[in-house]
Amino acid sequence: MSTLPLPATPVNAEHSLLHERALAARDRPAPYGPDVDLTQFNKPEARAPVESLRSLHTQIREAALLAGIVTEEADRAASYFQIDYSAIYQRIRQAYQDQIELMTTQEALQRYEWLRDYWWKAVEVDADKYTAAVELEQTGGFFLRVFAGQQVARPIQACLFVQENNISQNVHNLIIVEEGAEAQLITGCTLHPGVREGLHIGVTEVFLKSGATLTNRMVHNWAEGFHVRPRTGVIAETGATFVSDYILLRPVRSMQAFPKVVLQGEKARAQFHNVVVGLHDSLIDMGLRVELLGRGSQAESISRAVARDNSIIYLRGTFMSRDNDSRGHLDCRGMLLSDAARIYAIPELQAIGAPKSELSHEAAVGPIAEEAIEYLMTRGITRDMAIATLTLGFLKIELPGLPSVVTQHLERVMAATAEGRL
After folding, report:
1. Could you state, in order of their start, the residue ranges of all structural domains in the chain?
2. Which residues of 251-265 are buried (b: 16+ CB within 10 A; e: fewer)?
3. For the segment 7-22, what is each residue's pLDDT rounded down to a tens digit?
4. Phi, psi values for residue 172, rounded to 5°
5. pLDDT surpasses 60 at 251
6. CA distances from 245 to 22, 118, 242, 256, 272 (A)
7. Residue 76 Cα distances to 81, 98, 184, 269, angstroms
8. Where are the alpha helices (DSSP H) in 88-204?
């Protein structure tokens, strides 16, 4: 286990300053996405811990499974499960006890004073009213630490589950992958079938030490009246690699995210794969900012979006380079399946004091090519099936290492979406 530095300032003084900054930002709207009234939500009852995830109600287990969370834990190194505001389960398999730590962030802050040196360092506490709400009224979140040099063979899973209607779940997650370590994290964010409205704010701060690798696969399943505000920050040191897969295939009232990834170390790398489907009246505003600061840093982002019904999707992307040897590529493509749906692709490239850096983008939005539909129809399939086949092919992005149960579920949902059954 590596030794991490102690904080440069006293814990009380640091916390007081963060609290003051949050108070000043508690009414500050985000620059993108619709504003949400944070005073409208209820507070849920506390949930009792469980001895096993298999003891959860069938509806909870089924909803979690469709978000990639395996309640049998057969192929998992560790599990964290939170319902509403309560962490009901956390377990590290015996074989991985000396490789990782997994606990609530509250417990981690009480155990390690040095952790305050990472608290609100990758995400600004006063970025907007949502980050401020997490500081002022935090309602859970997990701490994951992968010890130096450890190669965690099996995925770690974390589920943030909403069971009660009309609550605001304000979580703060903190992930530290130490020098030369490697891990996979599956984060499933979902809700009980009876939940129709509410808010999930998920602050996640990721710190990748030299040579570290983290593959983070996130599956979101929400509801038509639900608002979602992820707030993610990643800092990658020399030779570190961050891989992010994000999947949203269910209706949502609004989802707005603009993660910031700082590749500050030499040859730091980042890869992003996003698959998003807009259904019904969903408003989805997805963004990404990558700062290529380290010599030879590289980043690639691939996004596929399909908009149906009256949905609106924004695909934003900003790559900013300050190093001549850095490379970055944005690929944003959207497909429209109805006259009322809208997609906006907004790529932005910035080379600042780095005239030899290589930044590029591809952006395209449009309907399915009519000639492709007609070609498939000549093969004896209906027009609806031809559209479904082409849509399914468009949405498919290779996501290496994704659990088979999730892959199969995604294929079923994408097929149903393409065929107009959702």
Report:
1. 11-257, 368-422
2. bbbbbbbbbbbbbbb
3. 334 456 777 899 999 9
4. -130, 110
5. yes
6. 30, 24, 10, 16, 6
7. 13, 15, 10, 26
8. 105-111, 129-136
The per-residue pLDDT for range 170-224, each reduced to its tens digit, is 999 999 999 999 999 999 999 999 999 999 999 999 999 999 999 999 999 999 9
Helix (H, G, I), strand (E, B) or coil at 11: helix
H-helix segments, 34-104: 58-65
| Tokens encoding 409 | 């579920």
The reported pLDDT for the residue numbered 352 is 97
Give the span between the Cα atoms of 257 and 342, in whole angstroms. Answer: 18
Tokens coding 232: 């993610």
pLDDT value of position 5: 39
> In this structure, which amino acid lies at residue 67?
A
φ and ψ of 299, to 5 deg:
-150, 145
Query: What is the chain's length?
Result: 422
H-assigned helices in 6-150: 11-25, 58-65, 105-111, 129-136
CB-count burial class (<10 Å; 0-12, 13-18, 19+) for 10:
exposed
> Nearest 5°: CA angle at 415, between 411 and 418?
140
Do 192 and 222 meet the contact criterion of CB atoms below 8 Å apart? no
Q: Residue 390: enclosing H or E segment and its boundaries?
A: helix 383-395
pTM (2 decimals)? 0.90
361, two tokens = 């983008």
Question: pLDDT tens digits for 101-160?
Answer: 999 999 999 999 999 999 999 999 999 999 999 999 999 999 999 999 999 999 999 999
Q: How confident is the model at residue 364 (pLDDT cuts 50, 70, 90)?
A: confident
Q: SS3 of 268, please?
A: coil
Output 68 or 37, whichever has higher pLDDT. Answer: 37
Contact 174, 115 (CB under 8 A): yes
- Tokens 């290496």 found at: 400
- Alpha-carbon span 72 to 58, nearest angstrom: 13
> Collapsing DSSP states into helix, strand and coil, what is residue 114?
helix
Task: Look up tokens 């961050």; give the residue.
Answer: 242
Compute φ and ψ for 19, nearest 5 degrees.
-65, -40
C-alpha dist (Å) from residue 197 to 130, 222, 223: 17, 9, 7
Dist. CA 414–CA 291, nearest whole Å: 32
